[in-house]
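Continuing the batch. This is chain 6 of the set; chains 1 through 5 are on the previous pages. Same settings as before, nothing changed between runs. Recording input and output for traceability.
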Amino acid sequence: MTIDLFAGIPVRDYTAATAWYERLLGAPPAFLPNDTEAVWELAENRYLYIEVRPDHAGHGFQTFFVSDFDARLTEIAGRGLEPADREVYDNGVSKAIFRDPDGNEIGIGGVPQDAGAS
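Output for chain 6:
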């Protein structure tokens, strides 16, 4: 069975949100289906998209898990974004929480490299 995923984030300002997500994700959108949406492919058949929906903006939250947690956060910091918060769970998993200009939460989870060294 194949499953494609499109996870949406409601935003107010298309231009500001597109620029912010380009910085977070390190690339321009993979495609633009219309004038109010921009879509990034996170992995094969797994997409994150923004959609102009002012009445819902700021209430979105998504988390994706990566195998290169430390490297990913370093790359994002190099593009000028820092997590608003970080969490570390008892099992060694970490989560960096970013907030877009509308306050939507994008979490990036993973196991830091130094956690595996113990």
